[in-house]
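User: Can you predict the 3D structure of DUF177 domain-containing protein? Sequence below.
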Amino acid sequence: MNRLDHRDPLVFDTHELGRRPGSLRKVTRTVEAPEGLGIIDVIAVPVKSEIEIELRLESVVEGVLVTGRARAAVEGECVRCLEPVEDRLRVEFQELYYYPESDERHRARTAGADDLDEESDDETYRLEGDFFDLQPVLRDAVVLALPLQPVCQEDCLGLCSECGARLSDDPDHHHDAADPRWAALQGLSAAPGDEGDGIKTSDTREGGAENQEK
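Assistant: Sure. Here are the predicted structure tokens for DUF177 domain-containing protein:
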């Protein structure tokens, strides 16, 4: 009993190969992008955008060898200036989908191997009847091809740390700032009118001193 949805555009049928080693079949299909095809909150293929897929299906002794390429648009955000980033992505991939019985024989032969673990078993792709799901393989290929830190242009200058202005739009952008070495002296400067008060106080003190001498 197959668990795959045959109506899913990323599920492919290998029935025509007939399990004859050496049999070939080429498939071209344009599908809508599923969710999660990229790096979350960084850059990804927009959901429901078109993905052009070309596959070469080859029957081998253990299963079906799938070789293909995919082309799609990607959208994200520049990590320096937060401007939108748009690009076209082309990825290539190859994966062997095991026949159910071939996979069981393979696991039985290697059951005692020291290097066999659950992780490697999870990475094995299997046919379900005559069908296989391309989505996991496609997702891995897209994620590996995408930049972890996308930029709108290689020499993007980012944003001003004070006002948030985009520096690439104005390379001469700057803010006048007081020399921090003078900051402590600014509080000691006399306010308007203080100078006269100081003189008056000085004269009063001198007059008081003269009266004391008399």
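The CA atoms of residues 35 and 173 lie 40 Å apart. Confidence is low (pLDDT under 50) at residues 196-202.
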